[in-house]
Amino acid sequence: MVESIKERAHEKEISIRYVFLTIVFWILTIGWIIVIFSLSADTAAESSELSHTILEYLNELFNTDVTDDAMLRNVAHASEFALLTVLSYLALSSTNKISNKTSYAESPVKLLRSDNEMNIIFTLWFSILNAIFDEYHQLFVIGRDGSIQDVLIDMIGIVLVLVIVRVVFSIYLRTKGRTEVVYNGFSSSEK
User: Fold this and answer.
1) Considering 20, 108, 129, 169, which has the largest number of Cβ atoms within 10 A of its Cβ?
2) Residue 66, SS3?
3) Is the CB of residue 146 less than 8 Å from the CB of residue 136?
């Protein structure tokens, strides 16, 4: 049975490894979106109580006496969307690698210069749309409101992660002695 699956996958040039990784990363991504949605569903009082509890713990841990939780809330916003960005980048990247026949590399339309740029742009849009949806959702929660400022704070985490991804990807290629495949119209070349 396992050999039969492997043979069919080989015929279609499907990578079982990337199918598995894709499933795992999409489950983690959707799970994290649910966590974000759950935290957004807390009333203002519940959210404040959670912030104060975390702030008290951090004050004990670092032997400080910070009373304003505004910075903590901003860091939390940026961090939760930074993690969403990492997970969605990995999910999109592994999805693109399932099969060479269905990957962006084989697409007749090359709007972006490389697979990595495509993954970064799709991740950017996916994460920003989730940030907007998160703030929209808060409009319907007691004592909470949607804030464009919070979306901008979320975008700091999103963009920071994507810049890091781009730099790490470039360093990785350089250490492996490889260059990024760049698409020029319908063909690809080494950058």
Assistant:
1) 169
2) coil
3) yes
